[in-house]
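Customer escalation, tier 2.

The customer says the design service returned an amino acid string that "doesn't look like it belongs to this structure." They asked us to rerun it and document both sides in this ticket. The original structure tokens are below, unchanged.
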């Protein structure tokens, strides 16, 4: 008995065709809308046209990550709807092929889309950072000082700064954290009351403490009057630049930033929700396919209009739920993990009920 039948290839090809068109078409449409709105500003800042075009190519990765669940939804609705309208599902059932077996290639496609989403989720922070550099969005013009901020530096280092005066070249209440593993590469937290900048020698940290954390529960502390951190190479103007947002950090980097933010007393609920969404959105690709597949079988008389309405309606409801639960998680009205997974849980339960009731 062959595992892959001609009917499987046919269903998968129909689904894949719609999926690819949607997964590329939606981001391109968003790019056109965004570019139309912001083009005058880019030209006013004298950004070369080549940099603008390249920046939007980099932005395509993040846009695809965001729309893949919608692409799966549209592909499933129109693939199943087409099979229903042409009585191909009825013919398959008459041949002894159940609806579950008929929809198996679509589930495989949704799983592949979920894997693609995971990969794009890790690639998007790199492309987002490059996009911002090309569009000159990193530095806020005209600023000379910054207060109470976190700056995610290279090599897993996070700076927490209470005050920075860039023109004068000094700051107050600095904390530098670098995550490590074991005694050979320990985690450390360096806190200083003041930091002074010199163009030749760099930053000089004054009146501080160095906490070495080689193992869980161990804390070796050194006090110093002055010290230099050779990795602290950022100039004052670099620290004025907008720190990396969660969208510019990979999953592990975002986790380190969250732990550093919480250790310093900050509120990391929004960041925790965003980190959890890196996993829940790829899972959404499978959940949404299982939810809309049985709904799409009612597409026989409604035709294409019904399919468009069903796809758009489900997408809008799902996006509203994502925004609502994300806001609730950020405000600590829901635990961050719960906030990220509630839409999947609700649609998953509804999908299970619909699948159990579908005529096979």
């Amino acid at each position: 008995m062959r595992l892959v039948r001609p009917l499987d290839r046919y269903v998968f090809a129909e689904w894949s065709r719609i999926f690819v068109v949607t997964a590329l078409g939606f981001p391109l449409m968003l790019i056109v809308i965004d570019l139309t709105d912001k083009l005058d500003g880019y030209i006013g800042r004298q950004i070369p046209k080549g940099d603008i075009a390249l920046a939007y190519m980099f932005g395509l990765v993040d846009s695809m990550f965001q729309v893949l669940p919608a692409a799966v939804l549209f592909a499933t609705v129109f693939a199943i709807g087409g099979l229903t309208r042409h009585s191909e599902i009825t013919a398959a059932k008459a041949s002894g092929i159940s609806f579950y077996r008929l929809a198996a290639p679509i589930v495989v496609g949704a799983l592949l889309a979920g894997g693609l989403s995971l990969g794009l989720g890790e690639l998007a922070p790199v492309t987002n950072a490059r996009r911002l550099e090309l569009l000159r969005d990193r530095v806020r013009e005209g600023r000379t000082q910054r207060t109470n901020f976190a700056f995610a530096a290279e090599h897993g280092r996070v700076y927490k700064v209470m005050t920075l005066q860039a023109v004068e070249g000094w700051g107050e209440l600095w904390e530098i954290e670098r995550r490590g593993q074991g005694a050979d590469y320990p985690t450390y937290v360096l806190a200083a009351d003041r930091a002074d900048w010199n163009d030749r020698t760099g930053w000089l940290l004054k009146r501080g403490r160095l906490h070495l954390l080689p193992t869980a529960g161990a804390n070796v502390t050194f006090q110093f009057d002055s010290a230099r951190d050779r990795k602290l190479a950022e100039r004052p103007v670099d620290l004025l630049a907008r720190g990396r947002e969660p969208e510019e950090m990979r999953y592990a980097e975002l986790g380190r930033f969250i732990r550093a933010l919480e250790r310093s007393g900050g509120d990391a609920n929004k960041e925790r929700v965003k980190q959890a969404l890196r996993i829940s959105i790829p899972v959404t690709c499978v959940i949404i396919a299982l939810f809309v597949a049985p709904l799409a079988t009612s597409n026989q008389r409604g035709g294409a209009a019904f399919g468009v309405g069903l796809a758009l309606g489900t997408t809008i409801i799902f996006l509203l739920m994502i925004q609502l639960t994300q806001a609730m998680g950020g405000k600590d009205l829901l635990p961050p993990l719960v906030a990220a997974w509630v839409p999947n849980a609700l649609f998953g339960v509804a999908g299970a009920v619909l699948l159990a009731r579908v005529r096979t």
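Tier 2 assessment: The sequence is consistent with the input. The CA atoms of residues 125 and 210 lie 31 Å apart. The first helix runs from residue 6 to 44. Sent an explanation to the customer and offered a walkthrough call.
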